[in-house]
Amino acid sequence: MMPPDRIEFPTCPVASVQHDRVMLAHGEGGRLMRQLLREKIAPAISLGNPASSTSILENEAATFPVLDGEMTITTDSYVVSPLFFPGGDIGSLAVFGTVNDLAVSGADPLWLTLGLILEEGLPFEVLDRILSSIGIAAKQCGVSIVAGDTKVVPKGVVDKIFINTTGVGRMRDNGSLGSHRLHEGDAILVSGPIGHHGIAVLAAREQLGLTPPPRSDSAPLHESCRCLHDALGRDLHAMRDATRGGVSAVLHEWSEASSHTLKLRESLIPIAPDIRGACELLGLDPLYVANEGTFVAAVAPSAVARALKVLQGLDVSRNATIIGEVAKKQSAPVIVERLLGIWQPLDEPSGAPLPRIC
Amino acid sequence: MKFVDEFREPELALRLVAQIRETATRRWVLMDVCGGQTHSLLRYGIELALEECVELIHGPGCPVCVTSCESIDFALHLAMLPNVIVASFGDMLRVPGSRESLLDVRARGGRVQMVYSPMDAVELAKNHPNCKVVFFAVGFETTAPATALAALHAEQLGLDNFRILVTHVRVLPAMEALMLSPVNRVQAFLAAGHVCAVTGFAEYDAFVDRFRVPVVVTGFEPIDLLQGIVDAVQQLESGSHSVSNCYTRSVGRQGNINAQNIVETVYEVADRDWRGFGSIQKGGLRLRNRFERFDAEKRFEPIAVNPIASANACLSSQVLSGQIKPTQCPHFGNACTPDSPLGAPMVSSEGACAAYFRYQWLQSK
Fold it and tell me: What does pTM read for this prediction?
């Protein structure tokens, strides 16, 4: 029997729509939006936990069990420019930043929400890289992304992509933390050399041409915070990640909240040579420069050796060191012993530190 | 860090402090000309350490502090014009004119761009062919070569949308104006090391002979400053006066000839208004005729001069000329703080008022 004649159907003259960049329609709730969620966002964020994409795809509120003890919640928005910089990108930053906020408050991070505001015209190649980075970072931190929202706004309304993440964590029960627990005599430590993130982003944004380009310290701190907390228990008094405003901002907040003066020794503050060089060149004080993978902690004097041993045993905090102490309230909230042995107040900067001109 | 740490060595610094104390038989009045020196002197506590034997008066060498109010007002006006972008160094953006600053204007919708180098402003012009990009060129002889280079580069590219608002100032005429002032108290100068790196210091010979004051070319690190002060105090004690160079690792007698040639090609010496001083003869630079197509003052309509309302309260003229210390101003720390400055010296990272606020006042509160 002869095979039936093959009937050649004319091909459709309109190719199926394959955009290479984000269109306004991707945010308008229709087929394109579902396609974006199904093909791009859900696969990326479910890297760590396949179940986590369900509520995002089905546009439902996420449900999770009520746990014993205390829960904690925090939110942060990420608008960094450029989106990619040596040592990180806006995607991993949006995960680590919120995870770190939970970690330093004494919580184990569990869940994140993910809000994306996309600029019309954002190339999918860029979005893909960011989503992939979010997925890998969430897996690294052991958190599930359980709910989310995506909006697309007309070109020029936002700068490429803004991200909001909200994090939920479970408070550890080995001692409360906070500036209210600072005591005179407490040692102040930093978990690593300071100033990397701010200088890396500045150098990348302004194309300063520093060689090699400084790298951001962007990293998750949940593990080092948990280990420190477990080892020290109630001897750990406060932790804070030194993000915007740097170490100076943390110490000023602690001073105000606790009515103590915080004393630093400039000679003890760890700064990598390339970061120090860039700061000298630009007239910036590294104490004011942002970090994204470095925290400040106040510990009881008797626990200093234990604290350093624990932190230095972990890669992310291997250069942890003591930089000062908590002292009785003086006129200035934060004072620094400069190199000639003279104590100076550490002022809070007005607005963003702007480089000097000559 | 090499080239930094050896100039901050605490033991050597303390030895130099002791040497100055031993040498001085009376309290001498020295002026550190440059704002960068002022900040180092305060940051490292050198001023306090030497309080008994040296009075340090902080001179006019903060470039944004001496930029005239009228020039800032003109830049503010330009930033609000359609299709005009004003670019300048970060420090300049916060300095108030008669009413507001470039950052205020930006918040109101003006186009203001911070740049790290004048060449970035040329790039900006290249990338915005439909806009006029005005580079607000402030600063002493230190920044003039870079802005001159930008003008040459723009000329080479044939850009017709690049403009420069030149407010460059020259340090030596200001030192002369200070010496000629009837209220002058300065007995020796720590000359600005970075300026001398460009200009050299041969031109100070005539100044020293005329006014019979020691001039010591001085750097910015604690050891540099202390060595400069040692030299100045030794000269004063022995009754001599000469130009000496305590910043030899950066400064030669003839300076940077290439930089001088570039400045000479693009600019000519002119009288200029200084904030706090008024007009100073030969106190600044202006573009030569060859570059007049880039000259913002010639290419844009002039504006009426505003009566200077807020500047009346600010005593910056007395601070910049060394008549009063910042802390002697009634507004210091009260109406005038870095968060709400009445005048430029409280804004700039090199301003004397900001230095006192940061390093001394907070502690004495």
Answer: 0.84
